[in-house]
Design goal:
three-stranded antiparallel sheet; globular
Length: 80
């Protein structure tokens, strides 16, 4: 069995590995979170470890959003 550094994934395979859609993988590539390391015909190939790292980084980024202190937020302020 090959290691994640050695496995090359197509866009669809990368999406399955990361639990996202192929469109999300293409968006990550456009934003520079991952980049294809090879092409076969029209298919981009991504290293599995890069895809998994990008997925983990995106998840951490989404869960570490700044939370308001003491439950105060702009939405609460507007409701008053």
């Amino acid at each position: 069995m090959s290691s994640p550094q050695d496995r090359l994934l197509t866009t669809v395979e990368a999406a399955e590995a990361a639990g996202v859609t192929p469109a999300c993988i293409r968006q990550w590539a456009r934003r520079g979170y991952i980049r294809p390391i090879a092409r076969i015909g029209k298919r981009n190939l991504y290293r599995e470890d890069h895809v998994l790292r990008a997925e983990r980084d995106r998840r951490v980024e989404a869960t570490s959003a700044v939370k308001p202190a003491n439950g105060f937020s702009a939405l609460n302020f507007l409701d008053q």
